[in-house]
Specification:
The protein is an alpha+beta fold and 133 residues long. It has five helices and four strands, in the order E-E-E-H-H-H-H-H-E.
Amino acid sequence: MEADYPVRGSILHAGSHIVASPAYGNVISTIQTPPSQVIENLSTSETLHELSLANLIATNCEIEGVKAGDAALIAGTAQTVASHMGLSVDDYFSTYLQPALQEISAPDACEKHAETTRDIALKLQELGGSVIE
């Protein structure tokens, strides 16, 4: 399922996503989200909240063990899950990204969410997502 969700710094392309990340300057990564069956299983409100927060943490924080491609995989998967859930761009932003933006505004947000973000990136790869850099 193709995602059609513009996220700051993201460009969607064919069956994969090409994403630029602020934490990594001008690095652009091409990713493949996990397979459709996995996306279907990930399509819950709780999971999309976790992916949205991890997306913002990964793209705005320098986290040991999380590379630009991992940030892109999280962002692309969040967009694909939102699309699968039938959310409009406005609903995705107001219900998931806006609250995540509020969470990352805390001074300790990067440190607080680093481990979870790293775990999510690894899990998405275990579930069939990949980074094609």
